[in-house]
Write a structure and sequence with these properties.
Strand content of chain B: 25-35%
Number of strands of chain A: 11
CATH class of one domain in chain A: Alpha Beta
Number of domains of chain B: 3
Strand order of the largest sheet of chain B: 3-5-1-12-9-10-11
Radius of gyration of chain A: 19 Å
CATH topology of the largest domain in chain B: Aldehyde Oxidoreductase, domain 4
Oligomer: heterodimer
Keywords (chain A): FAD, Flavoprotein
CATH class of the largest domain in chain B: Alpha Beta
GO molecular function, one term (chain A): FAD binding
Number of strands of chain B: 31
Strand order of the largest sheet of chain A: 4-5-8-6-7
Pfam families (chain B): Ald_Xan_dh_C, MoCoBD_1, MoCoBD_2
Largest sheet of chain B: 7 strands, mixed
Number of helices of chain B: 17
Helix content of chain B: 10-25%
InterPro entries (chain A): CO_DH_flav_C, CO_DH_flav_C_dom_sf, Diverse_Substr_Oxidored, FAD-bd_PCMH, FAD-bd_PCMH-like_sf, FAD-bd_PCMH_sub1, FAD-bd_PCMH_sub2, Mopterin_DH_FAD-bd
Largest sheet of chain A: 5 strands, antiparallel
Protein name (chain A): Xanthine dehydrogenase family protein subunit M
CATH topology of one domain in chain A: Enolase-like, domain 1
Structural class of chain A: alpha+beta
Radius of gyration of chain B: 27 Å
Largest interface: A-B, 38 and 39 residues
Structural class of chain B: alpha+beta
Strand content of chain A: 15-25%
Order of helices and strands of chain A: EHEHEEEHHHHHHHEEHEEEEHHH
Chain lengths: ~350, ~725
């Protein structure tokens, strides 16, 4: 752990100004991940710029009919917000599937997007890790990789993105609002997180001097036919082995629109337009779901301990789509899988 | 009738704990306290080549960095490092002694600074270069090199031959991975030198063990060292042996002549002891009628390169089942790891898991109900020693446990019971542990105002020792429990063994009874010095202390108030110190028993397991406190669920490192994993085991639980998983 300075940003402009002056500074909001990383010597910022007081705590309707969520809205507030519960219940359930109540009280919406991987080697500074120390090698590929990725991996990295919330955001096609010295811009959630490629040290396409200000949800919340199913090694308070966000728009038994995203399997929430297209116009049944699963898992590759994730993901996709089609979403409190 | 023994008395230390008044080893603040932070080895084996402490020493607030080169003097002989429970064979690890690296996480430097944060930062600036040597940390890779240790249970007959000719046979190998204790409280020690006296606040299950160890390691006189551990945030066996931070704290205090605290991080605690990974090989041969002809149990467990830690994994079948032929063998594999150590029900948690899964498999092969098979094989005598039990109400455990669970409604066919998308499985197992008593001495100081202080050097590791001692003393002295204060966890108090093995309750409570009897004798003498004493002529066992009075057992109207007797004899206080009577009686086997019934629901497609019900029926002699006893067994069941489904220390054998050295990734059950747990205490009066009939409850709660769950998973799914933990990918074939 290295000593750091602590400053507080008064407003968004101040935050951008402060981070521009120091390439080793980091923003801190809830700190539920960053503080751990500092303690483990994985991160060693020269300065922490506290953005938790920025006035980005509102949840408001947009003119397009969607919702704009301030980046500093705590995860817990978001999950229990009446509009989110009613219109975007899949997002609420995804958030409540993650962490613990205490952590959700602290964690910010913007920070949730920037969680770093839980790969064991990333946290252990005595082992090589390309994400932590570019060029040092990936220990997980031939190591303890039960929790690692099966999709979109590279020879440099098989880490996964640990967020539950982001999986639902991916399925909902959320848009990330950011601002930096060059001004404000938006990034589609699908383009926000990156695949590891040769630069696994970069988790996202957010520039180091940019700050997330809000997450925008489009009007469609799929509140009638959705589910978020998280499979893990104990029934709560564990990261996903595989998680699935599934949302359908049905006309009778026919699928008019489908959204499908996976967590715990890749460096980013995993979506496939082919998988969703394969569901369109189909009867919402096991045959269609199996086809979608095949598409979504196309190219999946195990690394030994995590081989089972491919089959598990396939079954989880089918089950979640079934829950969504039947309008019986997975309950968060009841751990029985319906 | 006792007022307190056997009741659900709330913890006498509960208020102190929830208000923070109870202090733990890392919470004793003294003026000028120095904070130590450990630098630990990043390699599993080799030699330190270079240590550069200059950067750390240059930081403001850093006082010193101790390494093997500049540490104060320590004893040179192995014997000095052998504590009370050190393995008989081997050479104990010596903290910060020389340049050899024996395991990953071994302390190689201690940074001493004015505050903890500075110490931590400076620790990251200590540069160490190693000469690495090839290492091995994988039990499976080394099993061919396993060597036999003296088996605690004798073999008999020809088990191999009997197995070969048995009508029904089952042989299989079971595996339990390395597990770590993970007590909530981090290991910590605070060492204070003052006027030639060393006072140490330590997280330990045995203050006198640590005191004697420190005297030897630092060549100090016994009266110069005092070790205290008034409260403990969980031990589970991790605190039986002195841990390295206590040595480092004393080294620091000696070097600086200032008080020093060393607290380990959670990750560093994974370089302390652990439940050794073990391979358990079972072979059971039965007659077609379902009685055992042959029982073979071999264990292959992990120890370090430098010590041989072994516990009785294999002999438990001798306590549970009749078999004319039996063979037991315990083998060890030496790996480049710290020495393994005791963890709740050492040997039994692992050995009985394997035995009771094997019995379940035998029942399936015999097409016999698992409870019925156990009753058919039931032994009223210890098979190895051919001795009767002081008491053994295991049949009653089976009966009451099965009735509470509804076992008679079980369909024996695997995969036959369902609840929607879930397969339902019912499994059961037996549990067994020892009912031990160790020599312990208790001091009672009774004052004329009707208060008593009860003291011994035991540690209360969170089990409720303070409370049961107060209950027993209150009943034996005829005082309200609020008038009793209990002092524990101080090496200067009367002798008491380590808190472990489930022996503290029986040891200290019987010692209280003996001491209280001596106090009663003194009181009777004082009473009989009074003129016209109504108790004239009565002996010490003719009277009892009840409601503040010395009362004749024959005639309750003949009584003298304790206060009057003491006043009349002008005695301000009566101080007595007596030990328990530990019989050298080898005529009986002394054990506790249990029967566990578990229900699991398993999602057929996804393999997700929920343990929806557990009934644990325990026969453990006299239950002193229904509330703490219930908690103790319930905690054991929760741990057993974790052992069955969650716990595993994950090693990267290439690096020789633990990869999940934190309690986010080392999984133990959380609330969502726990549903109904019913604890039944079967009535078991026992006048032989010890005068108060106490058997102890520390270990029994976990024994057999993992087997009951594994057996239930088989019953639910038809899939027999023989390596723990039972994760979903072992239950369902996904690819």
């Amino acid at each position: 752990m290295t000593p750091f300075q602590y400053t507080r940003a008064n407003d968004v402009a101040d935050a951008i100004k402060q981070i521009a002056t120091d390439p080793y500074a980091k923003f801190i909001a809830g700190g539920t991940n960053l503080i751990d990383l500092i303690k483990y010597d994985v991160e060693g910022p020269s300065r922490l710029i506290d953005i938790s007081h920025l006035p980005l705590r509102s949840i408001e309707p947009t003119s397009a009919g969607g919702v704009l969520i301030g980046a500093m809205v705590p995860n817990a507030d978001l999950a229990y917000h009446p509009v989110i519960e009613e219109r975007y219940p899949m997002l609420a359930r995804a958030i409540l599937s993650g962490a613990s109540q205490q952590l959700r009280n602290m964690a910010s919406t913007g920070g949730n997007l920037l969680q770093r991987t839980r790969c064991f080697y990333f946290y252990d500074t005595a082992t090589p890790c390309n994400k932590r120390e570019p060029g040092s090698g990936c220990s997980a590929i031939d190591g303890v990789n039960r929790i690692n990725a099966i999709l979109g991996t590279s020879e440099a990295c098989i880490a996964t993105h640990p967020s539950d919330m982001c999986v639902a955001l991916a399925a909902l096609e959320a848009v990330v609002h950011v601002i930096g010295p060059a001004g404000a811009r938006t990034i589609a959630i699908a383009d926000f997180h990156r695949l590891p490629g040769n630069t696994p040290q970069r988790d996202t396409n957010l520039e180091p001097d940019e700050i997330i200000t809000a997450i925008e949800l489009p009007p469609k919340g799929f509140s009638a036919n959705y589910s978020y199913l998280k499979i893990r090694d104990r029934l709560s308070y564990a990261f996903a082995l595989v998680s699935v966000a599934a949302a359908l728009e049905l006309d009778g038994e026919t699928i008019k629109e489908a959204r499908l995203a996976l967590g715990g399997v890749a460096h980013k929430p995993w979506r496939s337009t082919a998988a969703e297209a394969a569901l369109l116009g189909q009867r919402a049944d096991a045959t269609a779901f199996a086809k979608a699963a095949d598409w979504l898992l196309h190219g999946a590759k195990g690394y030994g301990h995590n081989n089972f994730k491919i089959g598990l993901a396939r079954r989880a996709i089918m089950r979640t789509l079934d829950q969504a089609a039947r309008g019986t979403p997975q309950s968060i409190s009841d751990k029985k899988i319906r | 009738m006792p007022n307190y023994i056997g009741t659900a008395t709330s913890r006498v230390d509960g208020r102190a704990k929830v208000t923070g008044e109870a202090k733990y080893a890392g919470e004793f603040n003294v003026p000028g306290l120095v904070h130590g932070y450990v630098v630990d080895s990043t390699i599993p084996k080799g030699q330190i080549e270079r240590i550069d402490t200059s950067a750390a020493l240059g930081m403001a607030g850093v006082i010193d960095v101790l390494t093997y080169r500049n540490r104060p003097q320590m004893a040179a002989k192995d014997d000095a490092y052998k504590d009370e429970v050190a393995p008989e064979k081997g050479s104990p690890y010596r903290p910060l002694y020389d340049d050899r690296i024996h395991f990953t996480g071994q302390p190689v430097a201690l940074v001493l600074a004015e505050d903890w944060e500075t110490a931590r930062v400076a620790a990251s600036q200590v540069k160490i270069e190693y000469q690495k040597e090839p290492h091995i940390t994988d039990l499976h890779a080394e099993r061919a090199r396993a060597f036999a240790v003296d088996s605690p249970e004798k073999s008999r007959g020809d088990a191999g031959k009997a197995f070969a000719s048995a009508a029904v046979r089952h042989a299989a190998e079971y595996f339990i991975p390395t597990e770590h204790h993970n007590p909530m409280e981090l290991f910590a020690s605070t060492a204070i030198w003052q006027d030639g006296q060393l006072t140490v606040y330590d997280k330990t299950q045995g203050v006198q063990n640590v005191q004697q160890y420190l005297c030897k390691v630092f060549e100090l006189q016994p009266d110069a060292v005092r070790v205290m551990s008034p409260y403990m945030g969980g031990g589970f066996g991790a605190g039986l042996r002195p841990q390295y931070q206590v040595v480092l704290a004393v080294l620091g205090a000696q070097a600086l002549k200032r008080p020093v605290r060393v607290m380990l991080t959670r990750a560093q605690m994974y370089a302390l002891g652990y439940r050794p990974a073990s391979i358990e090989r079972l072979a059971l041969g039965a007659s077609s009628g379902g009685t055992l002809e042959s029982m073979q149990h071999e264990a292959i467990a992990v120890t370090s390169q430098f010590e041989e830690f072994a516990r009785n994994d294999t002999g438990w079948g001798n306590l549970l089942y009749k078999s004319p032929n039996a063979k037991f063998e315990h083998r060890l594999v030496k790996l480049d790891l710290p020495t393994s150590c005791d963890m709740r029900a050492p040997g039994a948690a692992t050995g009985v898991y394997a035995l009771e899964c094997a019995m379940d498999e035998l029942a399936v092969a015999l097409k016999t109900d698992p409870v019925q098979l156990r009753l058919q094989c039931y032994s009223d005598r210890h098979q190895g020693e051919d001795l009767p039990y002081t008491s053994k109400q295991l049949r009653e455990c089976y009966r009451q446990g099965a009735a509470a669970f509804g076992w008679d409604k079980r369909n024996a066919e695997p995969r036959s019971m369902r609840d929607g998308s879930e397969l339902v499985g019912w499994g059961m197992a037996s549990g067994v542990w020892e009912a031990l008593q160790m020599p312990a001495t208790v001091r009672i100081v009774l004052t004329a105002n009707g208060h008593a202080e009860v003291a011994t050097a035991a540690s209360d590791i969170g089990t409720g020792t303070y409370t049961i001692m107060a209950q027993v003393a209150a009943d034996m002295l005829g005082l309200p429990i609020d008038n009793i204060s209990v002092k524990l966890g101080d090496s200067t108090l009367p002798q008491c063994p380590l808190e472990g093995g489930s022996w503290i309750a029986s040891s200290v409570c019987n010692a209280i009874a003996n001491t209280a009897r001596a106090v009663r004798g003194d009181l009777l003498n004082l009473a009989n010095e009074m003129k016209d004493s109504p108790l004239a002529g009565a002996g010490v066992d003719d009277v009892a202390l009840i409601d503040g009075k010395i009362v004749s057992k024959q005639d309750a109207t003949r009584a003298v108030p304790i206060a009057s007797a003491m006043q009349s004899g002008t005695a301000d206080r009566i101080t007595r110190e007596e030990a328990n009577t530990v019989a050298e009686d080898k005529s009986h086997a002394r054990n506790v028993h249990s029967a566990i019934f578990a229900e699991v629901k398993v999602d057929e497609q996804l393999g997700v397991i929920r343990v929806t019900r557990v009934v644990n029926a325990v026969a453990a002699g006299r239950i002193l406190n229904l509330k703490t006893a219930h908690s103790q067994v319930m905690g054991g069941v929760v741990w057993g669920i974790g052992m069955a489904l969650h716990e595993e220390t994950l090693f990267d054998h290439q690096f020789g490192r633990v990869m999940n050295a934190n309690i986010a990734e080392y999984h133990v059950p959380v609330n969502a994993d726990i549903h109904d747990i019913e604890v039944i205490f079967v009535d078991e009066p026992d006048e032989i085991v010890n005068p108060l009939g106490i058997k102890g409850l520390g270990e029994i709660g976990i024994v057999g639980v993992a087997a009951a769950i594994a057996n239930a998973v088989y019953h639910a799914t038809g899939k027999r998983v023989r390596d723990l933990p039972i994760t979903l990918d072992k239950v369902v074939q996904f690819n």
